[in-house]
Amino acid sequence: IKLMLDGEVPEFEEILYAANGKQALELIEEKRPEIMFCDMEMPVMGGRQLLEEIVSRNIKIQVIAISGYNDFQYVHATLLANGVDYILKPFSKETLLRAVDKAVSRVKGAKEEASRTRMHEQMGMTMANQVLQQFCKGEEKEEQRIREAFQKLGAKETPILLVSILSRNASQIIQERYDGDQELCFFTMGNILREMFRTYPFHQEIFIDEFNCQLFLQGDVSDPFRVADKMKICEKKLEDTLGIQTTWVVSRKAVEISQLEENLVGQNGILSQRGVWGL
Questions:
Q1: pTM of the model
Q2: β-pair partners for 217
Q3: How far is Cα 93 from Cα 177, in angstroms, rounded to an integer?
Q4: What letters, b where the CB count within 10 A reaches 16 and e where it falls short, cover 263-272?
Q5: Strand partners, 85
Q6: What is the pLDDT of residues 81-121, one digit of tens each?
Q7: Residue 187 — φ and ψ, nearest 5°?
Q8: Which residue in 73, 207, 222, 232 has a CA-CA distance of 20 to 30 Å to 27?
Q9: Which residues, at least 6 apart from 154, have a Cβ–Cβ distance to it below 8 Å?
Q10: How far is Cα of residue 145 from the mean position of the Cα atoms in its chain?
Q11: Rounded Cα–Cα distance for residues 44 and 223 (Å)
Q12: How far is residue 252 CA from its own chain's centroid?
C-alpha cells in the first residue's frame, strides 16, 4: 500500500505504520490521522476490534478496510465506523487510489463543513453579543430575542445576577496605554473578569462603551456578597495591572431575564449618582 501511494497522493503529509490494531490505536490517539487503511486480520488486536474502539471513542477518521474475506461481520464493522470502502485482496493500484480519492474528498468536505459551522457559530455569537449590547443600552426590548441571545452565549434558564461596572479613567488609559485601541483594552479587561469568575457556569461581560460594562453571572450567584468580594479583588487587579479605576454595583439577588432591565436601570442610576460618568 505504501509503495502504491508513494508520490500518487500529494495531499498526504505523512504516512504512519502500525503492525497491529493495538499499535494503530495508540498512533491514532497520538497523531490523529485523517485516513486509515485497516487490514481486518491482524495480530494482538484485529481490524474489527480496532474499528469498534474507534466508534466507541468517537474518533473521526476515514476508514478504508482491507481483507481477504468477504465476511459480513467485517463489512458491518466497517459500515459502523462510517467506512469509505471495503477492499478485497488481491487489489489493484487503481482500486486503492479510487478508495483514496473518496477518502480525501470526505476529509476535504468535512473540513469545509467544520469551517462553515465555526463561521456560523461565530457569527451567531457576535449577533448574540450585539443583541445584549443593545439591551444594555436600552435599545432592545424584545424579551424573546434577549432570551435567545443569552442561550446562544451559553446561559441556562435560571436566574442571572448582574454586576454593573463603571470605569473612571478608561478613556485616558485607552489613549495612553493602548494607542486608542478600545477593543484591545476591552479584551484585556474581559480576560481579567473571565479569570475572576471562571468557576461560574455562565459569565458574560458586555462592554457598552469605554466607561460602562455589564457582567452577567449564573451558577454560585445566590450570595451577592461572594460576588462583591470577588469584585473587590477584580477592582484592585484592574487598577494594578491596567491602571483602570472602577466602581461597581452588584444586584441584591439573581433574577429572571424578564426582570433584568429593571436591574440595569437601577444599577446604572446608582453609578450615575456617584458623579464619575465621563471622568
A1: 0.58
A2: 161, 203
A3: 63
A4: bbeebbeebe
A5: 64
A6: 677 788 888 888 888 888 888 888 888 888 777 776 666 56
A7: -60, -45
A8: 73
A9: 201, 202, 204
A10: 22
A11: 57
A12: 32
